């Protein structure tokens, strides 16, 4: 039965064998954004119509399209031991742990994480009280009012563009669900720290390659548990590509050199989850390859959930840093002359996530952020 987890466990004093098997699910892909339709100087408050990516056809209805039609049918991660996984469609995860000498098999395991996987979604309660319609509508009106005068496309500085509300509601829900599934599996969320014991104020998961905060370098598998990070879902890559094209069109329409934002193909993504007290100090993203950094290939950042106060500056100085609020659905791009900016998250603004997202994605209070890079 699709999506059903079979768990069998056999245990002896020297060995534990756990087998999980889940049938993979298939996806039908539909994406909402097409750079081709983007008129930078046109309607400031709408993005272009949806496009069915798989067929390349224009679709009639705009915005509210999803890139999964089967969200929530989770397929736990395939084998991610530090060896080539047998197949990405792998439907089984096997863990062999031996407590005695002579370990012959040691594959995808969580045993070394020392903590249970972090779930970015709330546990569904069968007794969840529905908010009164009046209250829901009041929330929506407030959100719409606030967004009314916000230009959808904002040029923040050379190489830095903000696409407000770029990710549709249904795509945000799908991203949350995908990150949740990956996050509770092998290579999922953990609280990163440094050798001296200091911890970052967030939960992190890497896709593509692992970023090691202590050595400030990328590695093929996580040094603390030998797990190969999950791949970046191709649906995420399509959204990144759409965002890059829309921002280049916008620059072009605004008589700014589109090359300030280069096209790149992400092969690394750092997924951060911040709770209400989460934050991230000012830093530069400078651990990608020399070639990528020299070309100024952009970082593309997705925000979902509660809003964040995002700081950026040419120097590492919180007091003089510029400030921008990143809201759910926003995409921030910084490349070219802004590729080396110092940036960070000074605070999360509690209870600012759209009510509809809370209802449909069941995200914990906090903020999900994905930053895509080309190593
Ligand atoms: O959460 C954010 O907006 C920034 C994340 C970030 O800078 C990073 O992961 O390097
Ligand atoms: Fe960063």
From TrEMBL:
This is Fe2OG dioxygenase domain-containing protein. It comes from Vanilla planifolia (Vanilla). Fe cation binds at residues 283, 285, 343. Keywords: Dioxygenase, Iron, Metal-binding, Oxidoreductase. Its cofactor is Fe(2+). PROSITE patterns: FE2OG_OXY. The lineage of its organism: Eukaryota, Viridiplantae, Streptophyta, Embryophyta, Tracheophyta. Residues 44-61 have a biased composition (Polar residues). Residues 40-86 are annotated as: Disordered.
